[in-house]
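Lab manual, section 2.4: Encoding a predicted structure.

Procedure: take the sequence of the chain (155 residues), apply the prediction step described in section 2.3, and record the output as structure tokens. A sample record is shown.
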Amino acid sequence: MAANATIRIQQADFDVGHEIAALTKGRIDIGAVVSFSGICRGSENGEPIAALTLEHYPDMAEAEIKRHADEAISRWPLSGLTVIHRVGRIVPGENIVLVLAASAHRQAAFEAAEFLMDYLKANAPFWKREESTAGTSWIEAHDHDDAAAARWTKS
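Recorded output:
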């Protein structure tokens, strides 16, 4: 069975277990599912965070995530992918992002999930605004995120 990708950008929370069950239902070709779930922290560098607000360009974000999901499917022998990214106001303890990569074997699933998360963290068209006791501020990109994404560039 060919791999397919489910991509959703939504305000509503998601249930990781439900998403894994949906990805694997009726599939006997899947031997591994690797999941990454990003959760809003309650502090950054010792400073309390009240919430994150994520914004995006809807059509652009979906298209870019799909393009990278298609690349993952072409690079690794995957059985399926799920990428869910939340937008809107997210408070500490709530889910932000979920990447599920399914394959017959674990190595492909691990690598594909890591590839997608590195892309999402460094290059996906989302903008984060942090609320703290000091006020609100936009979160800048980090060099280490760019370096992690760059290692997947084909030479």
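Check your result against the sample. The chain has one domain: 4-150.
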